[in-house]
Design brief:
single chain, alpha+beta, D-Maltodextrin-Binding Protein, domain 2, 8-stranded mixed β-sheet, globular, disordered N terminus
Length: 379
Protein backbone atom coordinates (compact mmCIF):
# COMPACT_ATOMS: atom_id res chain seq x y z
CA UNK A 1 0.00 0.00 0.00
CA UNK A 2 1.30 3.45 -0.90
CA UNK A 3 0.60 6.21 1.58
CA UNK A 4 0.85 9.77 0.35
CA UNK A 5 2.94 12.16 2.41
CA UNK A 6 3.41 15.89 2.04
CA UNK A 7 6.72 17.51 2.86
CA UNK A 8 6.86 19.71 5.93
CA UNK A 9 6.41 23.34 5.02
CA UNK A 10 4.72 22.56 1.72
CA UNK A 11 1.82 24.65 0.52
CA UNK A 12 -0.99 23.66 -1.81
CA UNK A 13 -1.15 25.59 -5.04
CA UNK A 14 -4.22 26.29 -7.12
CA UNK A 15 -3.70 23.12 -9.14
CA UNK A 16 -4.12 20.97 -6.06
CA UNK A 17 -0.51 19.77 -6.13
CA UNK A 18 2.05 20.72 -3.53
CA UNK A 19 4.83 23.25 -3.76
CA UNK A 20 7.63 24.18 -1.43
CA UNK A 21 10.59 26.49 -1.65
CA UNK A 22 13.58 24.70 -3.16
CA UNK A 23 17.12 25.99 -3.51
CA UNK A 24 18.71 26.44 -6.91
CA UNK A 25 22.37 27.35 -7.16
CA UNK A 26 23.30 30.73 -8.57
CA UNK A 27 26.20 29.87 -10.88
CA UNK A 28 27.68 33.36 -10.58
CA UNK A 29 28.30 33.03 -6.85
CA UNK A 30 27.75 30.96 -3.78
CA UNK A 31 24.25 32.25 -3.00
CA UNK A 32 21.26 29.97 -3.46
CA UNK A 33 18.07 31.18 -5.10
CA UNK A 34 14.65 30.02 -3.92
CA UNK A 35 12.23 28.64 -6.46
CA UNK A 36 8.95 26.75 -5.99
CA UNK A 37 9.20 23.03 -6.72
CA UNK A 38 6.91 20.04 -6.47
CA UNK A 39 7.45 17.98 -3.34
CA UNK A 40 5.10 15.01 -3.09
CA UNK A 41 6.21 11.83 -1.36
CA UNK A 42 4.97 8.28 -1.04
CA UNK A 43 6.18 5.40 1.06
CA UNK A 44 6.84 1.78 0.16
CA UNK A 45 6.48 -1.05 2.61
CA UNK A 46 8.69 -4.10 2.62
CA UNK A 47 6.26 -5.95 0.38
CA UNK A 48 6.86 -3.60 -2.54
CA UNK A 49 4.84 -1.02 -4.46
CA UNK A 50 1.21 -1.80 -5.14
CA UNK A 51 -2.31 -0.63 -4.41
CA UNK A 52 -4.68 2.05 -5.63
CA UNK A 53 -2.07 4.79 -5.80
CA UNK A 54 0.45 2.67 -7.74
CA UNK A 55 0.63 0.13 -10.51
CA UNK A 56 1.16 -3.57 -9.99
CA UNK A 57 4.54 -5.02 -10.90
CA UNK A 58 4.68 -6.31 -14.47
CA UNK A 59 7.66 -8.56 -13.78
CA UNK A 60 9.58 -10.30 -11.03
CA UNK A 61 13.10 -8.95 -11.01
CA UNK A 62 16.05 -11.15 -10.10
CA UNK A 63 18.23 -9.25 -7.64
CA UNK A 64 21.83 -10.41 -7.97
CA UNK A 65 23.28 -9.28 -4.64
CA UNK A 66 22.58 -10.29 -1.06
CA UNK A 67 20.95 -7.87 1.37
CA UNK A 68 21.56 -9.91 4.52
CA UNK A 69 23.73 -7.19 6.08
CA UNK A 70 20.94 -4.60 6.30
CA UNK A 71 19.69 -4.26 9.89
CA UNK A 72 15.98 -4.45 10.60
CA UNK A 73 14.39 -1.02 10.90
CA UNK A 74 16.60 0.64 8.29
CA UNK A 75 14.87 3.24 6.11
CA UNK A 76 15.72 5.27 3.02
CA UNK A 77 14.16 8.37 1.48
CA UNK A 78 14.83 8.91 -2.23
CA UNK A 79 14.44 12.34 -3.84
CA UNK A 80 13.50 11.88 -7.50
CA UNK A 81 11.98 13.79 -10.42
CA UNK A 82 8.79 12.83 -12.25
CA UNK A 83 8.72 9.30 -10.76
CA UNK A 84 11.80 8.53 -12.85
CA UNK A 85 13.13 6.07 -10.27
CA UNK A 86 10.07 4.83 -8.39
CA UNK A 87 8.01 3.83 -11.42
CA UNK A 88 10.57 1.53 -13.11
CA UNK A 89 11.39 -0.01 -9.73
CA UNK A 90 7.71 -0.67 -9.24
CA UNK A 91 6.95 -2.03 -12.70
CA UNK A 92 10.01 -4.27 -12.83
CA UNK A 93 9.23 -5.87 -9.50
CA UNK A 94 12.60 -4.73 -8.18
CA UNK A 95 11.09 -3.41 -4.94
CA UNK A 96 9.43 -6.69 -3.99
CA UNK A 97 10.51 -8.04 -0.57
CA UNK A 98 12.56 -5.02 0.41
CA UNK A 99 14.65 -5.52 3.56
CA UNK A 100 14.13 -1.85 4.57
CA UNK A 101 11.45 0.80 4.29
CA UNK A 102 11.64 3.01 1.21
CA UNK A 103 10.03 6.39 0.63
CA UNK A 104 10.11 8.54 -2.53
CA UNK A 105 9.73 12.32 -2.70
CA UNK A 106 9.27 14.11 -6.03
CA UNK A 107 11.08 17.39 -6.71
CA UNK A 108 11.40 19.71 -9.70
CA UNK A 109 15.00 19.85 -10.90
CA UNK A 110 18.39 18.56 -9.82
CA UNK A 111 19.23 21.57 -7.62
CA UNK A 112 16.09 20.95 -5.56
CA UNK A 113 17.07 17.29 -5.17
CA UNK A 114 20.54 18.29 -3.96
CA UNK A 115 19.04 20.66 -1.42
CA UNK A 116 16.73 17.89 -0.18
CA UNK A 117 19.80 15.78 0.59
CA UNK A 118 21.71 18.62 2.21
CA UNK A 119 18.76 19.53 4.42
CA UNK A 120 18.45 15.93 5.60
CA UNK A 121 15.05 15.45 3.95
CA UNK A 122 16.36 12.60 1.76
CA UNK A 123 19.12 9.99 1.83
CA UNK A 124 19.53 9.42 -1.92
CA UNK A 125 18.93 11.74 -4.85
CA UNK A 126 18.43 11.00 -8.54
CA UNK A 127 19.69 13.77 -10.84
CA UNK A 128 21.24 14.40 -14.25
CA UNK A 129 24.74 15.32 -15.30
CA UNK A 130 25.06 19.08 -14.74
CA UNK A 131 23.80 19.73 -11.19
CA UNK A 132 26.77 18.15 -9.39
CA UNK A 133 29.55 20.21 -11.02
CA UNK A 134 27.39 23.35 -10.90
CA UNK A 135 26.68 22.83 -7.21
CA UNK A 136 30.34 22.13 -6.45
CA UNK A 137 31.36 25.30 -8.29
CA UNK A 138 28.91 27.16 -6.05
CA UNK A 139 30.53 25.81 -2.91
CA UNK A 140 28.57 22.62 -2.27
CA UNK A 141 31.11 19.90 -1.46
CA UNK A 142 29.26 17.41 0.75
CA UNK A 143 27.64 15.32 -2.02
CA UNK A 144 29.01 12.38 -3.98
CA UNK A 145 27.70 10.19 -6.83
CA UNK A 146 27.48 6.48 -5.96
CA UNK A 147 25.58 5.32 -9.07
CA UNK A 148 26.10 6.39 -12.68
CA UNK A 149 23.94 5.74 -15.73
CA UNK A 150 25.08 6.95 -19.15
CA UNK A 151 23.61 7.09 -22.64
CA UNK A 152 26.43 8.32 -24.91
CA UNK A 153 25.34 9.91 -28.17
CA UNK A 154 21.80 10.63 -27.02
CA UNK A 155 20.21 14.07 -27.17
CA UNK A 156 18.83 13.38 -23.72
CA UNK A 157 15.42 14.33 -25.05
CA UNK A 158 16.16 18.04 -24.63
CA UNK A 159 15.05 20.34 -27.43
CA UNK A 160 15.73 24.05 -27.98
CA UNK A 161 12.43 25.15 -29.49
CA UNK A 162 11.28 28.46 -30.97
CA UNK A 163 7.91 30.08 -31.45
CA UNK A 164 6.22 29.08 -34.74
CA UNK A 165 6.46 31.87 -37.29
CA UNK A 166 9.08 33.75 -35.29
CA UNK A 167 11.62 33.74 -38.10
CA UNK A 168 14.20 32.17 -35.78
CA UNK A 169 15.73 29.39 -37.84
CA UNK A 170 19.14 28.84 -36.24
CA UNK A 171 20.67 29.19 -32.80
CA UNK A 172 22.59 32.23 -34.06
CA UNK A 173 19.23 33.96 -34.60
CA UNK A 174 18.71 33.99 -30.82
CA UNK A 175 20.93 37.04 -30.34
CA UNK A 176 19.07 39.54 -28.14
CA UNK A 177 16.11 37.15 -27.84
CA UNK A 178 14.40 35.88 -24.69
CA UNK A 179 15.45 32.29 -23.97
CA UNK A 180 13.96 30.30 -21.07
CA UNK A 181 15.78 27.57 -19.17
CA UNK A 182 16.02 26.19 -15.63
CA UNK A 183 19.32 27.33 -14.07
CA UNK A 184 21.75 24.84 -12.61
CA UNK A 185 20.44 21.92 -14.65
CA UNK A 186 21.36 19.81 -17.67
CA UNK A 187 19.06 21.96 -19.77
CA UNK A 188 21.04 25.02 -18.73
CA UNK A 189 24.20 23.24 -19.84
CA UNK A 190 22.73 22.38 -23.24
CA UNK A 191 21.52 25.93 -23.89
CA UNK A 192 24.96 27.29 -23.02
CA UNK A 193 26.65 24.72 -25.24
CA UNK A 194 24.41 25.40 -28.23
CA UNK A 195 24.85 29.16 -27.89
CA UNK A 196 28.63 28.83 -27.63
CA UNK A 197 28.71 26.67 -30.76
CA UNK A 198 26.82 29.42 -32.58
CA UNK A 199 29.30 32.06 -31.44
CA UNK A 200 27.00 33.60 -28.85
CA UNK A 201 27.91 34.38 -25.25
CA UNK A 202 25.25 32.79 -23.01
CA UNK A 203 25.67 35.60 -20.47
CA UNK A 204 25.53 38.66 -22.73
CA UNK A 205 24.09 37.80 -26.14
CA UNK A 206 20.64 36.62 -25.07
CA UNK A 207 18.02 37.78 -22.58
CA UNK A 208 18.09 34.84 -20.18
CA UNK A 209 14.80 33.93 -18.53
CA UNK A 210 15.61 31.60 -15.63
CA UNK A 211 12.67 29.54 -14.39
CA UNK A 212 11.88 26.44 -12.37
CA UNK A 213 11.91 23.41 -14.66
CA UNK A 214 8.15 22.92 -14.59
CA UNK A 215 7.55 26.57 -15.52
CA UNK A 216 9.59 26.58 -18.73
CA UNK A 217 6.95 24.96 -20.94
CA UNK A 218 3.95 27.05 -19.80
CA UNK A 219 6.01 30.22 -20.13
CA UNK A 220 6.96 29.23 -23.67
CA UNK A 221 3.37 28.29 -24.49
CA UNK A 222 2.19 31.71 -23.32
CA UNK A 223 4.43 33.40 -25.89
CA UNK A 224 6.37 35.28 -23.22
CA UNK A 225 9.74 34.06 -24.53
CA UNK A 226 11.19 33.57 -27.99
CA UNK A 227 12.75 30.18 -27.31
CA UNK A 228 13.01 27.60 -24.55
CA UNK A 229 14.85 24.40 -23.78
CA UNK A 230 12.14 21.77 -23.35
CA UNK A 231 12.12 18.18 -22.17
CA UNK A 232 10.73 15.70 -24.66
CA UNK A 233 7.45 15.42 -22.79
CA UNK A 234 7.10 19.21 -22.64
CA UNK A 235 7.92 19.50 -26.33
CA UNK A 236 5.00 17.33 -27.38
CA UNK A 237 2.66 18.95 -24.87
CA UNK A 238 3.23 22.44 -26.31
CA UNK A 239 2.42 21.29 -29.82
CA UNK A 240 5.78 20.21 -31.31
CA UNK A 241 7.15 23.68 -32.19
CA UNK A 242 10.19 24.20 -34.47
CA UNK A 243 13.47 22.82 -33.07
CA UNK A 244 16.77 24.61 -33.72
CA UNK A 245 18.99 22.44 -31.54
CA UNK A 246 19.09 19.55 -29.09
CA UNK A 247 21.46 17.95 -26.63
CA UNK A 248 23.29 15.73 -29.11
CA UNK A 249 27.04 16.11 -28.66
CA UNK A 250 26.62 18.10 -25.45
CA UNK A 251 24.53 15.76 -23.33
CA UNK A 252 26.29 12.58 -22.18
CA UNK A 253 23.13 10.90 -21.00
CA UNK A 254 24.60 10.73 -17.51
CA UNK A 255 22.16 10.33 -14.65
CA UNK A 256 23.46 9.86 -11.14
CA UNK A 257 22.41 8.56 -7.77
CA UNK A 258 23.87 10.88 -5.15
CA UNK A 259 24.21 10.92 -1.38
CA UNK A 260 25.75 13.08 1.30
CA UNK A 261 29.17 11.84 2.35
CA UNK A 262 27.95 11.76 5.94
CA UNK A 263 25.20 9.29 5.05
CA UNK A 264 27.76 6.73 3.90
CA UNK A 265 29.28 6.78 7.39
CA UNK A 266 26.16 5.05 8.73
CA UNK A 267 26.73 1.29 8.13
CA UNK A 268 23.02 0.49 7.96
CA UNK A 269 22.28 3.30 5.51
CA UNK A 270 25.35 2.46 3.43
CA UNK A 271 24.27 -1.18 3.11
CA UNK A 272 20.71 -0.18 2.15
CA UNK A 273 22.01 2.33 -0.38
CA UNK A 274 24.07 -0.39 -2.04
CA UNK A 275 20.96 -2.55 -2.23
CA UNK A 276 19.02 0.34 -3.75
CA UNK A 277 21.73 0.86 -6.38
CA UNK A 278 21.47 -2.79 -7.42
CA UNK A 279 17.68 -2.65 -7.64
CA UNK A 280 17.93 0.55 -9.68
CA UNK A 281 20.18 -1.24 -12.17
CA UNK A 282 17.65 -4.08 -12.41
CA UNK A 283 14.79 -1.63 -12.97
CA UNK A 284 16.72 0.25 -15.64
CA UNK A 285 17.55 -2.98 -17.46
CA UNK A 286 13.86 -3.87 -17.36
CA UNK A 287 13.03 -0.68 -19.29
CA UNK A 288 15.51 -1.64 -22.01
CA UNK A 289 13.92 -5.08 -22.34
CA UNK A 290 10.30 -3.82 -22.18
CA UNK A 291 10.06 -0.55 -24.14
CA UNK A 292 6.37 -0.91 -25.02
CA UNK A 293 5.36 -1.47 -21.40
CA UNK A 294 7.47 1.51 -20.35
CA UNK A 295 5.89 3.79 -22.95
CA UNK A 296 2.43 2.75 -21.83
CA UNK A 297 3.14 3.12 -18.11
CA UNK A 298 5.30 6.24 -18.11
CA UNK A 299 4.81 8.37 -21.20
CA UNK A 300 1.12 7.56 -21.61
CA UNK A 301 0.12 6.68 -18.05
CA UNK A 302 1.91 9.38 -16.06
CA UNK A 303 2.85 12.05 -18.63
CA UNK A 304 -0.37 12.08 -20.64
CA UNK A 305 1.27 11.56 -24.03
CA UNK A 306 -0.20 9.60 -26.90
CA UNK A 307 1.27 6.11 -27.45
CA UNK A 308 2.67 7.30 -30.79
CA UNK A 309 4.40 10.34 -29.31
CA UNK A 310 5.69 8.30 -26.38
CA UNK A 311 7.19 5.67 -28.66
CA UNK A 312 8.71 8.32 -30.91
CA UNK A 313 10.33 10.03 -27.94
CA UNK A 314 11.73 6.82 -26.45
CA UNK A 315 13.07 5.77 -29.85
CA UNK A 316 14.80 9.15 -30.11
CA UNK A 317 16.25 9.16 -26.60
CA UNK A 318 17.04 5.49 -26.13
CA UNK A 319 17.77 4.00 -22.72
CA UNK A 320 20.99 4.41 -20.79
CA UNK A 321 22.89 1.75 -18.87
CA UNK A 322 24.45 1.75 -15.44
CA UNK A 323 28.24 1.71 -15.52
CA UNK A 324 30.76 1.07 -12.78
CA UNK A 325 32.25 4.32 -11.53
CA UNK A 326 35.73 3.83 -12.89
CA UNK A 327 38.34 5.77 -14.84
CA UNK A 328 36.34 5.78 -18.09
CA UNK A 329 32.96 6.78 -16.68
CA UNK A 330 34.58 9.41 -14.48
CA UNK A 331 36.42 10.82 -17.51
CA UNK A 332 33.09 11.09 -19.34
CA UNK A 333 31.58 12.86 -16.34
CA UNK A 334 34.58 15.20 -16.29
CA UNK A 335 33.73 16.35 -19.83
CA UNK A 336 30.47 17.70 -18.43
CA UNK A 337 32.28 19.81 -15.84
CA UNK A 338 34.81 20.97 -18.42
CA UNK A 339 32.06 21.95 -20.86
CA UNK A 340 30.26 23.98 -18.21
CA UNK A 341 33.48 25.85 -17.52
CA UNK A 342 34.30 26.42 -21.20
CA UNK A 343 30.87 27.91 -21.94
CA UNK A 344 31.04 30.21 -18.93
CA UNK A 345 28.12 28.46 -17.25
CA UNK A 346 30.27 28.14 -14.16
CA UNK A 347 33.33 30.15 -13.22
CA UNK A 348 35.31 27.56 -11.26
CA UNK A 349 36.98 24.39 -12.53
CA UNK A 350 35.75 21.20 -10.87
CA UNK A 351 37.69 17.93 -10.58
CA UNK A 352 34.83 15.46 -10.69
CA UNK A 353 36.99 12.65 -9.28
CA UNK A 354 36.46 14.10 -5.82
CA UNK A 355 32.69 13.75 -6.17
CA UNK A 356 32.28 10.13 -7.30
CA UNK A 357 32.53 6.95 -5.23
CA UNK A 358 32.75 3.49 -6.83
CA UNK A 359 32.18 1.41 -3.70
CA UNK A 360 29.10 -0.22 -5.25
CA UNK A 361 30.71 -1.15 -8.59
CA UNK A 362 30.59 -4.89 -7.85
CA UNK A 363 26.83 -4.64 -7.28
CA UNK A 364 26.37 -2.80 -10.59
CA UNK A 365 28.42 -5.37 -12.52
CA UNK A 366 26.68 -8.32 -10.86
CA UNK A 367 23.21 -6.99 -11.68
CA UNK A 368 24.12 -6.21 -15.30
CA UNK A 369 25.52 -9.74 -15.65
CA UNK A 370 22.40 -11.28 -14.09
CA UNK A 371 20.20 -9.37 -16.53
CA UNK A 372 22.39 -10.10 -19.56
CA UNK A 373 22.88 -6.36 -19.98
CA UNK A 374 26.16 -5.23 -21.51
CA UNK A 375 26.70 -1.46 -21.54
CA UNK A 376 28.25 -0.12 -24.74
CA UNK A 377 31.86 1.06 -24.51
CA UNK A 378 32.19 4.64 -23.37
CA UNK A 379 33.96 7.13 -25.64
Amino acid sequence: MIRRLFAVGAQHNHHGSTTKEQAVPNTEGSRWLLLPALAIAFAVSGCGLSGADGQDALAEATIAHSSDDIPEGTSLVVAEQNASRSLPLQLSGATEELPYSLEFADFSGGPAVIEALRSGAADIGAIGEAPIPLAVASGVTDIVAIGLEANPGSSGGYFLATQPGSGIETVADLKDKKVAYPPGTGRHMIVAGLLARAGLDPKTDIEAVELAGAEVAPTFASGAVDAAILTGVQYYKVGSPPIIGDGTGINTGINTLIVRRETLEDPAKAAAIGDFVGRSVAANNWITAHPDEWVDAYYVGTQGMTPEDGKSLLDHIGTGKYYPIDEKSTALFQTVADGLLETGTMATAVDIRSYVDGRYNDIVDAQNNADGSEPQPLP
